[in-house]
Specification:
By secondary structure, the chain is mostly beta strands. The chain contains four helices and 29 strands. β16 and β17 form a beta hairpin. The radius of gyration is 21 Å and the shape is globular. Keywords: Repeat, WD repeat.
Length: 412
């Protein structure tokens, strides 16, 4: 990587909490009616197609309107979830009861992501468009223990970060930036020091939307950008030219990417585009080996209106190479998961009772618990329903339909 931030330029700052990659659904409003005048709605009874999930716990993160933009959880016997909020703060919750553990304040710009340290659940990192990455030690309260930033001498302003990630061994941090005078930067720090190690700025030509280290290979890094490229780097190499291993052209704008280990052959990379398509690539392939258009995703969701369907996140399941896709439709009242396995897309689960437009999620592949957060400021914990819970929910829905079947759809 290039050392000492050579070639750094003054930063542009964006303070709009809706300008991140989760803003694709901004502007929608929740309504209870599932089949409104625009022709949207279900093509079939969800209970007959999907396995049902039930809402276990739900908590509002603030008294005023605050969006949940990002989340990350620690995978331990006593898991915690960190959420990044639109008021420039972060909050830590116990997963099982959704009780608040700590509030972290200190950023002066939108929090673009939050991560637990891979090896220590008491350490939390948060990155912001203010150009800083803060390390929080939950054992000492809400005071930042370290701050990482590009403070090289020729940097007039800090570069506005758009995302970040931590290497699997917990040693290195990488932060991606917006486009700054024709350059988009990947910046690197060693967590043992707050000094900038260096960066890459020749591989992307537009805003970097996501930075993603491989889950088991600390030197392997993937990045995605609105320039349509997913780049794979070996950061152990001495310079950017040698580090760039593969540049994958999605021919779209990259919103979110993720690594998925496979039983044999190359690992898999998922790409969610800003046009709500899903692409799956091998880490050594020149083309995606499978693509699902927004139309195909809408059909698998059993929905009528393609334009109302959105992808929230892609998650790893207990089956290697399988992708769990969290999707939403309508005005947020429809929240469903789809499974991608052996190049096929099929309906999986329906989460009935969602009250908000979901922006972010976390999935525990062992317990199948799902956490969601979004524009209503609600942190929601879901789990697979038992047969008795599913039967009860179906009966209640049928009774409500019979009770109101003679009522007009428009109350006035």
């Amino acid at each position: 990587m290039k050392a000492d931030g050579a070639g750094t330029k003054s930063a542009l700052n964006s303070e709009d909490p809706l300008s991140d990659t989760g803003s694709r659904m901004h502007g929608l409003e929740i309504e209870s009616d599932d089949d409104d005048g625009d022709g949207d709605g279900d093509m079939s009874n969800p209970a007959e197609v999907f396995r049902m999930y039930s809402l276990q716990h739900e908590v509002a993160v603030a008294r005023h309107r605050t969006y949940i933009l990002h989340m990350n959880a620690s995978v331990t016997s006593n898991p915690r979830v960190a959420v990044a909020l639109s008021d420039q703060s972060c909050a830590i919750y116990d997963v099982t009861q959704l009780s608040k553990v700590e509030t972290l304040c200190g950023h002066k710009g939108t929090v673009v992501n939050v991560r637990f340290s891979p090896g220590d659940e008491s350490l939390v990192y948060s990155a912001s468009s203010d150009g800083t990455i803060k390390l929080w030690d939950l054992r000492i309260g809400n005071q930042s223990a370290k701050e990482f930033k590009d403070d090289t001498e020729d940097s007039e302003k800090l570069k506005p970060l758009s995302d970040f990630d931590i290497a699997a061994d917990g040693r290195f941090i990488c932060g991606g930036t917006e486009l700054i005078h024709d350059d988009a930067f990947l910046l690197f720090w060693d967590i043992r020091s707050t000094n900038l190690l260096g960066g890459y700025w020749e591989s992307h030509t537009d805003d970097i939307t996501q930075v993603c280290f491989h889950p088991t290979k600390p030197d392997t890094l993937a990045s995605g950008s609105t320039d349509g490229l997913m780049n794979i780097f070996d950061i152990s190499k001495a310079c950017e030219e040698d580090a760039l291993q593969l540049s994958l052209n999605t021919e779209s704008s990259v919103a979110k990417i993720g690594w998925f280990p496979r039983e044999s052959g190359s690992d898999m990379l998922s790409c969610i585009t800003h046009t709500e398509d899903l692409q799956l690539w091998t880490s050594d392939g020149a083309y995606p080996f499978v693509q699902f258009s927004r139309e195909k995703i809408c059909h698998s969701m059993q929905r009528k209106l393609v334009e109302s369907c959105f992808i929230v996140d892609a998650h790893q399941t207990n089956t290697l190479g399988e992708v769990l896709l969290l999707t939403t439709a309508g005005r947020g009242e429809c929240l469903r998961t789809l499974a991608v396995n052996k190049n096929k897309l099929k309906p999986l689960s329906s989460l009935a009772g969602n009250k908000q437009i979901v922006r972010t999620s976390w999935y525990d592949r062992n317990s199948e618990l799902l956490l969601t957060g979004g524009e209503g400021g609600l942190l929601s914990l879901w789990k697979p329903s038992t047969h008795s819970e599913t039967d009860l929910g179906t009966n209640l829905k049928m009774n409500l339909k019979q009770k109101f079947k003679h009522h007009q759809k428009n109350p006035y």
